Amino acid sequence: MRTSxxxxxxxxxxxxxxQFPFADQINPFVxxxxxxxxxxxxxxxxxxxxxxxxxxxxxxxxxxxxxxADLKVERLTLANHKDVLKPGAATASPGLExxxxxxxxGNKTCYGRCGRAETAWNESLALMAASRSPPSLxxxxxxxxxxxxxxxxxxxxxxxxxxxPQPLLDQSTPATTMRSINLxxxxxxxxxxxxxHLQEKYMDVAPYEGFWHPFDGPLAQYGLNIPAGYFIWGFSxxxxxxxxxxxxxxxxxxxxxxxxxxxxxxxxxx
Length: 270
What we know:
The protein has 270 residues and is an alpha/beta fold. It has a domain at 60-236: Glutaredoxin (3-Layer(aba) Sandwich), CATH 3.40.30.10. Helices cover 44% and strands 12% of the residues. The protein has ten helices and five strands. The chain has a five-stranded mixed β-sheet, with helices on one face. Strand 2, helix 5 (115-129) and strand 3 (136-141) form a beta-alpha-beta unit.
């Protein structure tokens, strides 16, 4: 704020009134200047805009927290995955439902190295919640739901992006677009995961249309993907030492048969 020159003049006039005897003659002039300065100050104060005491500004942190609270991460299991990923289960609006499924594991399935990826996934939820149309989210734990992981041929840490279509008027269901995105165990970040949705980075990955497609693959169409998942999961539960004993027993059996099948040499004629 600039200081008016009159504020510097008034103290000087007061000092002069005390030092010089003729200062009484200029008192009317000093009073007039003081009155004029008060009027100017009042006019300036009245012309300045008043600062409102309360301004209604939305809090971005609170808004983001509210969206984050509404964002729900479904836990996929062998029992509920068909109901959770059913077309129309997440939203009633027509079109495609965008799903992002995070595949994680524990000490047996991820060798205890999924901690960084899981932290990045949890931090990315707030970023995706702030978007205009956040995707539907789910998580699949291969440590507790290994049958479903083997039925889909996925392994942690991985991100599955799906475009789940709505049924048509004739009750037919279009093909489901599925993309599998592998995550680096040591360098993955929350922004990298959120960019799959926010920047549509999933378009950089070719859609999967192979044998193990969970909706449109041959195994899924004939209802054989879950039995195949049980078979592979059961086979993976067999300890490695059982295979070593089996291979050792089989090799010994083959060698004994070969040695027993050889006839002793006949003695030479006299």
